[in-house]
Amino acid sequence: MAALSVTAFSQIDTGTATTSQPQGARYQNQQPSPLAQYCTVDNPCPTPSAVGRDVDITPQPDRVEGGDRYSTQQQQRRNGNGSTSDLRQSNLQIPPARPTEFQQMVAASTGNTLPIFGASMFSQVPSTFAPVDDIPVTPDYVIGPGDELRLQIWGQVSQHGNFIVDRTGSISLPQVGTIHVAGLRFAQLADFLKSQLSRVYRNFDLNVNLGQLRSIQVFVVGRAQKPGSFTIGSLSTLLNALFESGGPLPQGSLRDIQVRRNGQTVTHFDLYDLLLRGDKSKDVPLQAGDVIFIPDVGPQVAITGSVNVPGIYELHGETNVAQALALAGGLTNTAASSRLRVERIPDRTQRAMVEVSQDATGSTAAQDGDIITATSIVGSFKDAVTLRGNVANPGRFQWHQGMRVSDLIPNREMLVTRDYYQRLLALGQPAQVQPPTLPGTSAANSATSATQNATVMSEGSLGIRTGQTQLAPGQTTQSQSANDASLQQRGGINGGGSSAGAALTDTSGTFAPKNDVVLAAPDLDWEYAVIQRQNATDLTTSLVPFNLAKAVIDRDPGQNVELLPGDVVTIFSKADIRVPNSQQTKFVRLEGEIVSAGLYSVKPGETLRDVVLRAGGLTPNADLFASEFTRESVRRLNKQRLNEFADELESQISANATANAASALTAQDAAAAASSANESRAVLARLRAAEPTGRVVLPLKPDSAGINALPEISLQDGDRFVVPKVPSTVAVEGQVLNANAFLYVKGRRVKDYLRLAGGPSRVGDSKREFVLRADGSVVSKQNGTFAERAIFADRNFEDVVLYPGDAIIVPPIIQKSAVLRNLSNIGTIIEGFGLGAAAIQVLR
Predict the structure, then answer these.
(1) Residue 573 · residue 522 · CB < 8 Å
(2) Which of 336, 339, 330 is nearest to 378 (CA)?
(3) Rounded to an integer, what distance in angstroms lies between the CA atom of residue 695 and that of residue 685?
(4) Dist CA 502 CA 824 (whole Å)
(5) pLDDT digits over 814-842, tens only?
(6) How far apart are CA 223 and CA 227, in angstroms?
(7) Domains along the chain with CATH numbers
(8) What are the residues whose beta carbons fall under 8 Å from the beta carbon of 587, sequence distance 6 or more?
(9) 618-632 residue pLDDT tens
(10) pTM here?
C-alpha cells in the first residue's frame, strides 16, 4: 500500500488560504492544520510549498499478511521524547459550526437552539485515516495495480510467492511469463491463473489470495468539512470517505450525497436511510478517481415540542407535515391532541402562523423554513383531588360526585406520617455504648468524657440541655475540683444547673445521661385544616378551612366539606403553624428533690405548681430557694443578645486597634498595641463561646418551702425545673488566696467567708466583688445592688448575709484600655445574659 496521504487545498501549517487555493477549499473557520499534532523534530510539519500536493502523514507500511494492514511499527510514530502513540486511536474534535441563519431564527422563535439532525455523527473524525483491514475481500473486488497476490502451487510443481500487480496490470510468474490480471474480479482470479499455468504445467492445483491491497485516490468536493483529495484503502466505501472528510457542512446536504465516476453519477446516498432505518445498501465501494460531491442542503423544517427527536430536518421526498413528523420519530406520549402550530414564511415576505389539526397533517404541505411545534398536554388531572401534608399517603386520588373530606380521610391511621414510624423505629435501636471511667482516670478526662456523652442526645430531645463543664483555657488550679463542686450545687456551671449537680450527684455525676423521652413527630393539628380551591369562572384561588377533628372523627356535616375536582387538601401539624398555648403539646422535666422526678406532659391550663403536685410534691430535703428553672426560648434570646453584644464589642476592638497602630511612635508602641488587640480578641472569642443557661429567676426567698411557695407560672415545651437538696457550703471563687467551698454557718457574712479564703489576691479587684445567690440573682458591690437585693438591706457589701449555696466572686483587675473597659462591669453581663459563674471563667 502506498503512503497514506491527504491533499488539502489549504496552507497546512497555518490553515490560511493562498493565491493558488481553489474557491471554497479552505478549512472551516480557518482552523490550524490537524496534522500539526504529529509534527516532531524528526518529522517536521510540511512547509507552505507543500500546498496542493499529497502530504505524507504516515510511515511507509510493510507488506504483512491480512490485507491492507499497518504493522506495529507502522501504527506508531515516534514522539519527541521517544514515546509512541497509536494514530488509529486519536480523533479530531470538529469545532462547533456557527449556527445557520435558520437555526438562529428557530432559536429566536422557540427559545431552543435545535441541532441539525445527523450532524453529530461527524462531531469527531479520525485525525488520520485508519485503513479498512481484516475484513474479507468480496468476490466482486476488482484486481488493480498495487494489489498483492499470494500464490501457492502444488502437485507436479511446487511453488509459492507474493506478486505485486504492476502499473500495467500484470504479474510475472517464473517459467510462465507475464499474466495480465487487472480488471478481473477476485472470484475469477483462481480459474484464470489456473488456465494460464496449464499451458506449462500438468497435474497441479493452486490457491490464490490477496495480501496487501492497493491505495486509491478519491476527491471530496462540495459542502464538505474538509474538501480535498484523499488516499484511502481500496476496500473503502462512501461512508469511510465521508468520515475522513468530516462530513457535510451545516450548509451541505445529508440526503443527496453523490458518487461520480467517469462522468456519471454512480449513486445518490441518503444518510437518513442509515440514521433512521439502518439501511446502507447504497454505500458503494469506491474506486480510484471517484468524486464524492456534497451538494447544497435541500429544504429544511424545524420540528420541536413534544416530539421524540426535536431538530432541524432536511426534506427529500417528504411533502406533508405528517411525513416531516415521522422524521422526528413522531409525537411523544405526552403530546396534546390539539392542533399543531406551524410557523412559516409564505412567499418569502413575512412570518405567518398556521394551526393544523393532527388528522389533517397528511394533507397539509410542509414548506421550506417551517417551524412545526407540537404542544404537550396540560399538567392538570381530570376528576382528581390532592391530599398533602401530615398524612401517611400524600398524593392524588380519584374524585367522585358527592365526595367529602371523610371520604378522602376515612380513618385516623391516614393521618400518621411514615416519618413517624421511621423515627419510632430508630428510638428502639440500641445506643452506642460509652466505656466506663476506669479507676485512676484523671478528673479532667472524666469531665471531658461526660461532656461528650452529654452532648450526644437524640434528635428532637425537646431542647433539654444536659450539664457541661467548661474550663477556661490554661486554667489548672488545684482547687478546681472544689470550685466545680460548689458551682454544681449552685447551678452556675455553663449550660448546666445547680440542681442537677446537687440532687443527682450519685448518678449524673458518675454516668452520662443516655435516655430521654422524645416526640417521634410533631402532633397533629386537629383544629385546623384547609382546602385550596380554584374558581372555575374567574380562576381565582380561595381557601376553605375546616376543623379536622369534627370532619374525620365526628363527621360533622358543617365541617365535613364536600370536595370538588382539583381541590388540594392540606393537613397541618403543630410544627407547621403555632397553635394557641392551650393546644400545644408540652413536655417538662422535673428533677432533683421531687418525689416522682421525671418527664411529664402538661395538661391544658396546668402551671408549674400543678405539675409538681401531680409528681408527688417536694421531698423533705428540697431547697426551694436554690431551685433552677430553665426555659429554651429564654436561652435562645439570651444567646442572641450575647451575640449582638459581641458584635458591638468587635467593632470597638477593630477601631481601637487601628487608632493605636496609627498613633504608635516606636516599634515598642506598635508591638504593645498589637498585643493589646490580640488579648482583646481572645477575650471576645471566649465571650462568643459562652452559652447562656436560659435560667429564669423565680421570686423565692431563702426560707421558701412547700409547693405553695412555687409561683403560678405557665409552662412551655422543654421547660426544666430542678430542685437540689439543701447545700451545706458557701463558695468563694475568683482571685482569692484560697478559692474553695466552706461549710455554711448561719449568720455569716461576706467578710467572714472572704477572711476564710485569705481575702483578695494582688490581682483581685475588690471593688467589683459580687455575690451569686443560689436562686441565680446577683448582689453587686460595684452597682450598689446589695442595698436592694440583700435580705436585710445591709449598708455595706461586706455585711451581706449569705445562705446555703451562695457564692462570692472576686473578679480579676482589668486593664482600663478603651476596649476592655466595656468588660469591667462583670455583674451587668452576668445579670443581662444569665451566664452563671462560668462566665467569670470565660472572661478571665
Answers:
(1) yes
(2) 336
(3) 23
(4) 31
(5) 765 544 455 444 444 444 444 444 343 33
(6) 8
(7) 148-210 (3.30.1950.10), 384-421+521-575 (3.10.560.10)
(8) 462, 517, 519, 599, 600, 601, 602, 717, 718
(9) 999 898 888 899 998
(10) 0.56
